[in-house]
Backbone:
């Protein structure tokens, strides 16, 4: 929510409070705090071990309007994706908010050597604009590259950078990061043990297929989607693959086949 709207809302509430009398103030102020979509909380940096403030979006202050077939979400109100990239203001360590503690001793040392030494202290706390969010995500990507982190984590961040470019209507840079995400997801699928990770192997198959489709590789997309459909028909995977994921996969296969047909007819 733009700052000006929040300030105006605050002024209106203050007026309402003074008109209603002092006894109503706690309830009205409580209402105001509920309306504030972004709040601050403290976390400890795993690299420099100092505390710092991060901003989060209240889930009740937003509404998911829709999402694209690659899970890119659209919200009414503040976009929580903007706040997923966390940056330590003291040392420059940056990561996805859910992966802050997933680095070992060697990786911490790499961040200290290659990032902290060149870092000018600055904060990413408070409301985020598109530019702040993009800069924070690029810092996360830089950190992951310096750490030589898991491909699945690099892929996840590339996806979010691609979504930010999609929100801004920059399809050229969106494509560039979708391609990076695709290459990293493929390497994650081939080289990493995805059992028990946030990205399970079936969702990985879908995302790889989806990214192929979005980067103009229709035939390859069909190959990855059909692998997922085959896995679904295997009795050993019963209950492991959400029905909704398979339905979406089948819809995407149909869409790609229809697009191919339209292209052939046009030629
Ligand atoms: Zn730090």
Residues:
């Amino acid at each position: 929510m733009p700052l000006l709207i929040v300030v105006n809302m605050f002024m209106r509430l203050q007026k309402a409070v003074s008109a209603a009398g002092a006894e109503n103030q706690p309830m009205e102020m409580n209402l105001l705090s509920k309306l504030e979509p972004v709040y601050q909380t403290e976390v400890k940096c795993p690299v420099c071990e100092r505390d710092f403030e991060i901003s989060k979006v209240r889930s009740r202050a937003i509404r998911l309007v829709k999402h694209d077939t690659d899970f890119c979400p659209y919200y009414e109100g503040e976009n929580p994706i903007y706040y997923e990239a966390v940056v330590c203001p003291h040392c420059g360590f940056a990561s996805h908010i859910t992966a802050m503690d997933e680095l070992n001793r060697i990786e911490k040392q790499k961040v200290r050597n290659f990032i902290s030494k060149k870092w000018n202290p600055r904060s990413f706390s408070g409301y985020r604009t598109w530019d702040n969010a993009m800069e924070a995500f690029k810092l996360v990507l830089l950190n992951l590259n310096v750490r030589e982190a898991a491909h699945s984590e690099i892929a996840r961040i590339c996806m979010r950078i691609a979504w930010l470019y999609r929100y801004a209507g920059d399809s050229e840079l969106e494509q560039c990061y979708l391609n990076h995400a695709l290459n990293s997801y493929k390497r994650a699928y081939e080289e990493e043990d995805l059992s028990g990770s946030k990205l399970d192997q079936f969702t990985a198959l879908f995302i790889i297929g989806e990214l192929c489709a979005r980067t103009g590789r229709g035939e390859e997309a069909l190959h990855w989607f059909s692998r997922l459909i085959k896995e679904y028909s295997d009795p050993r995977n019963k209950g492991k693959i959400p029905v909704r994921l398979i339905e979406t996969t089948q819809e995407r296969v149909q869409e790609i086949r229809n697009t191919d047909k339209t292209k052939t007819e046009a030629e």
About this structure: Confidence is low (pLDDT under 50) at residues 1-25. The two ends are 48 Å apart (CA to CA).
